[in-house]
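Sat 14:20. Reprocessing the chain from the morning session after the first attempt stalled halfway. Input below, unchanged.
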Amino acid sequence: MTHPMKIAIAGCTGRMGLTLVEAVLAAPGVTLVAGSERPGFDENAARALLETVGCKNLFVTSDSDTLAAQADAVIDFTVPAATLAMAEAVAKRGAIHIVGTTGFSPEEQKKLVALATQARIVQSGNFSLGVNVLESLVQKAAKLLDDAYDIEIFEMHHKHKKDAPSGTALMLGEAVAKGRSVALQEKKVLAREGITGERKRGDIGFSVQRGGDVVGVHSVFFAGPGEVLELKHQGFNRDIYAGGAIHAARWAATQKPGLYSMKDVLGL
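Finished this time. Tokens:
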């Protein structure tokens, strides 16, 4: 790609959207060309929010096809329904779609996979370099420590987060399952209440907390006979996700259509 990569931000005035806007404006070799908002959005309010991160006169639309037509790559940390509509628009152009959206149902995920035959989609529950290294370490630990070690995955996020467990927690759960050569769907325990009985050997437990403005805390505990191993990552700001998403967009520019992860991007 000889010209600077043209990037559009879906949901450009949300918490993550504004972080992405600011990051793209500061990143070398890329240019911010457009943003999207929900239908019926207030143009003046959107303009005011964008100006808080130093962005003026950005083209903002509520139409997925219009947004996709502006850019080489769309970075999308919104909600599943909006992301699928955007994925269809990006696929028509054979462009790049960086998907940080979480909370997809199995059927929604199948639709995204199908659209990756036309688009270059990088999907991750977390675009942080540290989290993706954590994922690799968790998989290795799960393989090395047998099911005498009980595994619990803990996560905490800000009070506005809508899905639980987080996409990152589920990503770590998949890493555990892969390390143990089991199916996460068969082993995960998402809630405990009342008289639950003893923990079943091999279960993969999840714990969720929500509150304040916590960006993201994830821990994986391996509780075995006489010891506990904890692997932990803590995010202090959303810049780590924005930087990873831009890196993924640059990487995808040289790839064929397909569905990729940050493990592919980072060669893990």
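The chain has a mean pLDDT of 95.
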